[in-house]
Design brief:
- With about 200 residues, this protein is of the alpha/beta class.
- Helices cover about 35% and strands about 25% of the residues.
- The chain has 6 helices and 9 strands.
- The strands form 3 sheets. A 5-stranded parallel beta sheet has the order 3-2-6-7-8, sandwiched between helices. A two-stranded parallel sheet has the order 1-9.
- Helix 2 links the parallel strand 2 and strand 3.
- It starts with 5 loop residues before the first strand and ends with a helix.
């Protein structure tokens, strides 16, 4: 059986992808970051705006698709998105009227992103229902999505067409090893640089 191809991503790789993407995303003018994956903190740096008082707040949600959790069957792992953390019981009130950028590290099957967008929109709609009908549209939350990597493969779910979607990089369907998953970061970076050197040599 052939070894699975691993693409080791370094902190510098992620930093530079987000830095290059931030200019486009700034046009969306997010005033809230919702983190599924790890890279959201970098956006706070690159989306700083002198006209805004304070930093853009970061809120985290926990969603699991491939992780083995207590009570899950083998059939559920990889097939069912499990909510492990949310914005709290008043998430709709937190979201209403905001421009929220949902941030994840990778768009693989798109199941996790679809779940996040759908559930957050439902929270907003429940909150809007408490308002007079004439006020609802102005208060409806605007969402956008950013992923560090979008895998070029058939997706098993979709994101509504009216939600802006940004990807730092489009890549083939390979296994991605992110630096925040590494136990030995020096070895991770060494292997990443070794792979890049081999790729440069093959292209020369």
């Amino acid at each position: 059986m052939a070894d699975v191809e691993h693409n080791r991503v370094t902190y510098n790789d992620v930093h530079n992808l987000i830095r290059r993407s931030a200019e486009k995303i700034a046009e969306f003018k997010p005033d809230m970051l919702i983190a599924i994956g790890a890279p959201d903190r970098l956006f706070r740096t690159f989306l700083k705006n002198p006209t805004r008082k304070g930093n853009i707040p970061i809120h985290a949600i926990g969603l699991s698709l491939y992780e083995s959790l207590p009570g899950l069957t083998e059939e559920q792992i990889g097939a069912q998105v499990i909510r492990t953390q949310w914005l709290g019981p008043e998430s709709g009130a937190l979201l209403i009227g905001r421009r929220a950028l949902i941030v994840d590290e990778v768009d693989d099957s798109r199941k996790t992103l679809h779940y996040a967008v759908t559930e957050l929109q439902q929270d907003v709609e429940r909150e809007l229902a408490k308002l007079p009908e004439a006020e609802r549209e102005a208060k409806r939350t605007k969402f956008a999505v950013f992923v560090v990597h979008n895998k070029l493969k058939p997706k098993l779910a979709q994101i509504p067409a009216d939600i802006p979607y940004y990807a730092g990089e489009e890549i083939e369907d390979v296994w991605l090893d992110y630096p925040w998953e590494a136990q030995d970061i020096e070895e991770h970076d060494r292997l990443a640089e070794e792979a890049k050197a081999k790729k440069r040599q093959a292209q020369s």
